[in-house]
Amino acid sequence: MNYTFLKWAGGKRWFVNNESHRFPLRYNRYIEPFLGGGAVFFYLQPQNAILSDINKELIDTYVAVKNEVDAVYRNLKIHQRKHSRDYYYTIRDRKTRTMATSAARMIYLNKACFNGIYRVNSQGKFNVPFGTGREVSFEQENLLQSSEILQNAMILCQDFQATIDMAQQDDFLFCDPPYAVVNEDARFVSYTADIFSWNDQVRLAAALERAKERNVKIIMTNVDHPAVRALYENIDGFTLDTVSRSCFISGNKEGRKAYSELIVTANI
Q1: CATH among 3.20.20.140, 3.40.50.150, 1.10.287.1490, 3.40.50.1000 for 13-54+158-266
Q2: Is the pLDDT of residue 246 over 50?
């Protein structure tokens, strides 16, 4: 059962469906520093987890679903009843006053926007256009189950390096960073380069090397780019693999094709 309540660009539902054999069978804590839609977390349903992201609106939404799920659902039902193109833009421009209404706003916009993309402008305002005139619906039982699974998680808004540095021996660290590379092609970069730079890729590699030395179990997915591969391929203890996956985020057919993805593991 899929208990993710957000569709996220670059999400890892494909990884769960095709690469779940890579997950370790035993580990202490599950740690994820780039939470996004949380597909891997909701698939594994770990008994002890640390989840984080630098996106405060995203993290506040998870906290609200964990702690105030009934209030979130009540607001989602209002959005479901009033859904239309005009209503979508009204909600997109509206400021919210409580964590529950903010979470419901984000979940609704994510459901109703074009391609489920999270993107903000230079003022930090969500600016994805309306996506569907069809009815939107929200399953109460699924949201309640998501809330139940989140009860076992510490949810933090912080830089990925701080979260990775929390990982200790036999913890399982799953990293799915935004894809930014040196000499980027157009893939993914238009909505990630401003929040995840090449310097961040270098910081990530250094943090993962330190975690590897602490005997943390690591799986990282990343863009299969020579510059990214070079950060890991000459370090003892990292195993590099590539898989092919489809990308459906692009607004044109040319962008919707299969891509090679890099998987880096250690201590698995």
Answers
A1: 3.40.50.150
A2: yes
* Best CA proximity match to 73, nearest among 104, 96, 98: 104
Question: In a 10 Å sphere around its CB, with 0-12 CB exposed, 13-18 middle and 19+ buried, how is residue 14 labelled?
Answer: middle
Kindly report the three-state secondary structure assignment for every residue of 72-105.
Answer: HHHHHHHHHHHCCHHHHHHHHHCCCCCHHHHHHH
CATH architecture label of 64-147? Orthogonal Bundle (1.10)
Please say whether the beta carbons of 46 and 154 come within 8 A.
no
Give the three-state DSSP class for 197: coil
For the chain, helix, strand, coil in percent to 5 are 40, 15, 40
Six token digits for residue 168? 């200790």
Q: pLDDT band at 161, cuts 50/70/90?
A: very high
Give residue 180's pLDDT band: very low, low, confident or very high (50, 70, 90).
Answer: low
Q: State the first-to-last Cα distance of the chain, in angstroms, to the nearest integer.
A: 25
Residue 193 has pLDDT above 50, yes or no: no
Residues of the chain with CATH 3.40.50.150: 13-54+158-266
Sheet holding 172-175, edge to edge: 153-157, 49-53, 30-32, 172-175, 217-223, 258-266, 239-246
Angle CA(166)–CA(198)–CA(16) in degrees, nearest 5? 60
Whole-model pTM: value is 0.90
**35, 98, 104, 143 from 148: Cα distances, Å:** 17, 21, 17, 9
How many whole angstroms separate alpha carbon 207 and alpha carbon 168? 12
**Cα(195)–Cα(179) distance, rounded to whole angstroms?**
10
